[in-house]
Hints:
By secondary structure, this protein is an alpha+beta fold. The chain has helices spanning 16-32, 71-79, and strands spanning 2-10, 36-52, 55-67, 85-92. It has two helices and four strands. Strands 2-3-1-4 form a four-stranded antiparallel beta sheet, covered by helices on one side.
Amino acid sequence: xxxxxxxxxxxxxxxxxxxxxxxxxxxxxxARYGGNVTDVEEWGKQRLAYxxxxxxxxxxxxxxxxxxxxxxxxxxxxxxIMDNVLRFLIVRKDEQ
Length: 96
């Protein structure tokens, strides 16, 4: 198992409970493909580096998880089609 981090930028046009549902759905996808969520960091509303879908701000979430090497591609295919997610990125974290 490897350590990974999923970074999500969620739209600001939805309510707090809907944002929580987006993060929960991402965690469900991680669990579905054999991953184990170890931590979730919420950075809150941040200014975007550039405009995305006519928005200048987004809510940032960072989800740390462990999973097998093939899981990130499967998780990415599900997160890609999620509503209210402006951007996402899955990276493998170095073992230390």
